[in-house]
Design a protein that fits this description.
- The chain is an alpha/beta fold and 225 residues long.
- The protein has one domain: Amidase signature (AS) domain (Amidase signature (AS) enzymes, Alpha-Beta Complex), CATH 3.90.1300.10.
- It contains eight helices and eight strands.
- It has a six-stranded mixed beta sheet with strand order 1-3-2-6-8-7. A two-stranded antiparallel ribbon has the order 4-5.
- The N and C termini lie far apart (39 Å).
- Keywords: Hydrolase.
- GO terms for molecular function: amidase activity; fatty acid amide hydrolase activity.
- This is VDHAP protein.
- It holds the Pfam family Amidase.
- It comes from Podilymbus podiceps (Pied-billed grebe).
Length: 225
C-alpha cells in the first residue's frame, strides 16, 4: 500500500511482483527463518524476476518475460525476504537522472522539482518516500551512491565481484570499472544485515565466481569506537 502511494506521487515503481502472499505462506512453513525473514524488498528494474521483464528502460525488451529469478533474488528468498516491486531506472542505466520513454520520469520525494539521481533512482525515491525499507540497486560509477546521496539515504557499492550483477549479454562494451549490486536503506545497520544475508552458502553455491568469504562484522565496526 505504501509503495503504491509513493509511486503515485513520484513514479518510482515500474512493476509489482506477483506471488508475494504465496511466498510468505511458504516461508512460514520453513524451519529455518533466514536473516531477512518477512522483509519486503524492492529491486532495481534490471534484476531478473521470474515472469517479469527487465526493461533496461528500452522498448526492445518489453516482450521478454524472464524465465527464472536471478541469483540475488533466489538468495534473498532463501533468506526469507519477499521481493515485492521492481523500480524505475534511466534508459540503458548509464545516466545520473531517472527517466526513460516507457515509464517516464521519477521525481525526488523530498523535492518534486529535483531528480532522485540514478541509475538506481527508483530505489532511492521509493525508500526515501517510505514505500520500502530495503532495496537492491547496482553501481558502476555512482548508481547506488548518487541516488542515496540525492535522497538522503545510505547505500553501499561492495568491493568488486562481491555481489555480481546480472550478465547483460547484449552489451557490446566492457567496462573497466567493475559493476556491483548492493543494498540501499535508511541506515547503515540495514545495509550490514543485507550484506550478511547475501554473503551466505546459498550465494556461494549458486554463483561460484563469488569468493566464498562471509561478511565480517568486525571490519565494519572497526571504524566505530
Amino acid at each position: 500500500g505504501e509503495a503504491l502511494e509513493v509511486t503515485r506521487e513520484v513514479n518510482c515503481v515500474m512493476d509489482f511482483i506477483h506471488g508475494c502472499e504465496d511466498q510468505l505462506q511458504k516461508l512460514k512453513k520453513q524451519k529455518e527463518k533466514g536473516l531477512l525473514y518477512g522483509i519486503p524488498i524492492s529491486i532495481k528494474d534490471h534484476i531478473n524476476c521470474k515472469g517479469h521483464i527487465s526493461s533496461g528502460g528500452m522498448v526492445k525488451f518489453l516482450g521478454q518475460m524472464k524465465e527464472e529469478d536471478s541469483v540475488i533474488v533466489q538468495v534473498l528468498k532463501s533468506q526469507g525476504a519477499i521481493p515485492f516491486v521492481k523500480t524505475n531506472i534511466p534508459q540503458t542505466m548509464i545516466n545520473y537522472d531517472c527517466s526513460n520513454p516507457i515509464f517516464g520520469q521519477t521525481l525526488n520525494p523530498l523535492n518534486h522539482q529535483k531528480s532522485p539521481g540514478g541509475s538506481s533512482g527508483g530505489e532511492g525515491a521509493l525508500i526515501a518516500g517510505g514505500g520500502s525499507i530495503l532495496g537492491i540497486g547496482s553501481d558502476v560509477a555512482g548508481s547506488i551512491r548518487l541516488p542515496s546521496s540525492f535522497c538522503g539515504l545510505c547505500g553501499l557499492k561492495p568491493t568488486g565481484n562481491r555481489i555480481r550483477p546480472p550478465a547483460c549479454s547484449d552489451r557490446t562494451f566492457v567496462l573497466a570499472v567493475t559493476g556491483m549490486m548492493g543494498p540501499m536503506a535508511r541506515d547503515v545497520d540495514s545495509l550490514a544485515l543485507c550484506m550478511k544475508a547475501l554473503l551466505c552458502e546459498e550465494m556461494f553455491r549458486l554463483d561460484p565466481t563469488v569468493p566464498p568469504i562471509p561478511f565480517d562484522e568486525e571490519v565494519r565496526l572497526r571504524g566505530n569506537p
